[in-house]
Amino acid sequence: MNNTFILNAPLTINLTLSYKCNFSCHHCYSREEDFKKEMTFEELKYVVNILSDWKVPFINLGGGEPLLHPHLFDFVKYASSKGLQCTMNTNGYLLDIETAEKIKQTGFRAVGVSIDSPVEEKHDFFRNKKGSFKRALNALENLAKVNVKSTVSMVVSKLNFENFHELIPILREYKVSQLYLHNYKCSGLGYKNMEQYDLTPSEWHDFYARALTLKKETKDLVISFDDPILHLLPQYEEHHLVKGSTCGKLSLNIRANGDITPCGFMPIVIGNILKDDIIKLWKESPILMNLRNPIPNGKCKNCGVYENCLGGCKARAYMLTGDFHNPDPHCWKKEVINQ
Amino acid sequence: MKVKVSDDVFERIEEENLREAQNLINKGMADKAENLGVITLIKGGIMTQLNLTGKAIWDVLKVKNSIEEIASLISKEFEVDFDTCLEDVKIFIQDLVDKGFVVYE
């Protein structure tokens, strides 16, 4: 086996087709984005051609709400024909049975539905849309009917960190294969509403300890996390080929106007796919080089798990401190002062 | 013992790494070449990269399912002793089994 992990191209592209949305969720990173400059369908096909040429295998479609995009299914058909595997994250509101059938025919690899609380009223409140919980469950039901793999994404917040486990029986009922527990990102409205929704570091510690226990106990459903600070917990035994945050190392984000950022929550534009050579950017962007070769700052300098954690979520460190080399503000570890 | 590649394994050759590894071999720098991942494998959220030797075994694994036969072909390709090669191939395959990329039949 090799010792140096180098990818010649991203493995995953997170692509925003449009920032238009039928919701205005309290944590949304994109409600203040520019809706006017969005790629045309021809430009989106051009993007697919580039990604196909470079054998980028996975595209995850987000937004905004992808089901609002007039060319969503044509795009996925085209991308699939060029060998790309497409998944989508949706609020599920528009996912009726006809849409589920179209999803099936078009060839989506899986569809992720966002559910932010097992309690209907709380989910509807957080998503700012009455009836959204019922529609999300309806979406899962429709996906199950047409045999499309479904996953659920939950953004962990004060709204759900104590009773998130109550979602598990609901997911079983709708044959969901995977639950993604996303750490609270502090971008857009997520940043503005941070005080109301983000957990304290101590609460993050307690939450992850409970979530890891639940993960071990749950055999019929995969529970996944996207937070490198989990390495702080001794009971976290996973070993990743790519250490720390994977943004800019495994994946890139492409905004609706073609701008490329390391991740959707880190608004540092490194280029534009319509004008720039994405592979040249992948290999030579100073921002990506910095993300791949992080420098420990502050309490990270003397941290015994830095080798695996690499400072935690870079987007959060960047948004809250201005420097993605700084420790993740969610880190509960106290600074070790060497005498 | 029989083995086979698991279903739904995605693989991508890292073309530039492959060329670089082959260049290094040609320059007599095999040690450096062995550090380069030339093929990326992904299955169900687990990812790994294989170097030139690993890729050679992987390529044979896709068409042969007997560990002894795989070791025989690899030992001939790399001009190494069969018994040593067999042990190395077993360890290599076990690692891929542990990660879910290969299953025992």
Commentary on this structure:
The complex is a heterodimer of chains A (339) and B (105). Chain A has 13 helices and 10 strands. Chain A has helices at 41-53, 72-81, 97-106, 120-127, 132-145, 167-173, 189-192, 194-197, 201-217, 278-284, 286-292, 306-309, 314-321, and strands at 12-18, 58-63, 85-90, 110-114, 150-155, 178-182, 222-225, 251-254, 259-261, 271-272. In chain A, a hairpin with a 4-residue loop joins strand 8 and strand 9 (259-261). Chain B is α+β, with helices and mostly antiparallel strands. In chain B, the strands form 2 sheets. Chain B has a 3-stranded antiparallel sheet. In chain B, strand 3 and strand 4 (46-50) form a beta hairpin. The chains are: A alpha/beta (339), B alpha+beta (105). At the A-B interface, loops of A face strand 2, helix 1 and strand 4 of B.
Task: State the main characteristics.
A: 339 residues; alpha/beta; ten-stranded mixed beta sheet; 13 helices; 10 strands; globular; B: 105 residues; three-stranded antiparallel beta sheet; 5 helices
Show unreliable segments of chain B.
none
For the largest sheet of chain B, list the strands in their spatial order: 2-3-4
As residue ranges, the low-confidence spans of chain A are: none
- The fraction of residues in strands of chain A falls at 5-15%
User: What is the overall shape of chain B?
Assistant: globular
Fraction of residues in helix of chain B: 40-55%
Distance between the termini of chain A: 40 Å
